[in-house]
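Example record for the data management plan.
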Amino acid sequence: MSLDSPATLEMPRRRDLDESSARPGSFGSHEFFNEFYRLFEQRGIRYVILHGFDEFTERFGSAVDCSVHEADRCKIAPLLATLARESGWVVAQSWEPQLFATCSVVIDPENPANHLTLAVCSHFAQGRCLLLRDTVLLQNRRRHPCGFLVPAPEVEFTHLLARAAWLESQLARFLPRLRELCALDPLGTQQQFDEFFGKTGRAIEEWLREPWREWERLAPIMGSQSGYAPSLLIAEMLRHTRRLLRPTGLHIALLGPDGSGKTTLIQNLERLLAPCFPQQRVFKFEPDIFGRIKPGSDSTPHLRPARSVLVSWAKTFFYFADGWLGWFWHLLPERQRGTLLVFERNFDNLVIDQRRYLVRGVGTLARVLRHFTPRLDATFILDADPEVIHARKPEVPVAELKRQREAYRALAAGSSRMHLIKADASAVEVGRVISRDVILLLARRQRRWGVPAVKRSFDLILSTAALVFLAPLLALIAVLVGLKLGTPVVFRQQRPGLHGAPFTIYKFRTMTGARDATGRLLPDAERLTRFGKFLRSTSLDELPELINVLRGEMSLVGPRPLLMEYLPLYSPEQKRRHDLLPGITGWAQINGRNAASWQRKFALDVWYVDHQSLWLDVKILAMTVWKVLRRDGINQPGRATADRFVGETEVECSVAKERLNS
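Corresponding structural encoding:
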């Protein structure tokens, strides 16, 4: 079998998969992994699984390291996101642990036990030194019995040796495998060792037998022989800047009366969200930078007398200052390290339950200051029957618990970042609901970060300026549409966005709602009025899509968002048109628009995905204005609107792509 030909990858299923992973339409970790690498080979991505493949089912678990060609690395994120969406999973986290490397966590929100942590690199670089190129990692790769492509033994040894020498903390992890490879080929491994470090005066067997003594000497030698690359310094600075602006940690709070089950819930969340965060820190109340809160120091705070009003105000300002100092001192560094920060209570509790904090007369002050405290990513308010809570915590009267419940509900209604959770269910079920919400929150954040900053800034500046400048025209069109075509003035419809995720598109209405005697809508040609044709020919009906651009659901330039029902009909190549945000205009629109065939339009869209740049976007926008003025390609010949897409064969897609390239 050719190494680059698609293969049917047969992989044993794990016996210990969670039972819920067997529900219809769900994927287990290994099923997802199998499908992902099948698509690798189907799309011609050059890759190898770097280590752990000899005992796949026992050693891999849900974490995989692989290497791809540098030219293919940009294809991984869209492929992973598309497969995740089709499988009911999401990409929850993605970060750059080092240069030329990306680590991603894909997970099933309904069953976090099903997840995959995928580390992908092209070159192997450390400390601004390029230690191994992708061509070295991919050379002489071979097919493993499981069906995957794995590195040649000497390549695997070289890679593990470089990692162990530079990152001494990983030496214990790789040492057994290094010894195995050394025993398989003593001469070849010694040669590789000498190429890296020169003549050290000791055989490789000695280094691997007692590595702890002077192992730290090897990294500087390896770095000096690999050479310092000044250009990598800039790349490394940009990587650190991206990680600084996009921390993978999360800051959440769990609010609710004492007895609502927060302690048990936190334990469940730590287990359920472990795949998404390397560690979790729990705070009783605020960051407590001065260490005044002692665990279990006061189990019945409501029974103690409150402080005077003056002291209560001072205490409230103290809590406010502690929150900000702790944010900079504790929370920001932890977020950079990817920590899940969980607060059992926070400043908002002062608005609801002053008695617990032994303060009084600070309601108005607390309500004002809470708007200036550090913003959380999400707040989950546990809503339970006061009678049930009173049975657990009898120190608080039922009447007071009812008051608190209404106050918490009002607080939840005031912000989209607050989520009211029914806490009457079992602790396991409540934990599952909140973990799902956290995972979906991570996925939304990851999709937002997936759009290049330059392109997003370009879209925001131009779309905002266009909406301000065109506001009178938009108002005039809205009035005319209402008079000539009726209401609603704006047409709304679900369309596939980035990676096929649905969003609601906004356009001006161009057709009437005329129906026949049976109540069915008349054909498009009969409902499309002269005024509607004018809106379409001038593309004025597309202007409300500027709102979609502001919301981050669309871009000014990109493949046009078509119908949701077309998604199952695309070929694997055509699906790549969803690897970028859809656009108001695009490469296909200035090269035929609706007059072009579906095959050509999709081939043009995929070409744009592979060649997208800011200068290309500027060119497309300029040519769009010219095309609109000339009214080219508005419809297919002899049709009021474009024909519906019904799917195509792989042969037709290949022919269209070849014609485009020629």
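Summary line stored alongside the record: The two ends are 31 Å apart (CA to CA).
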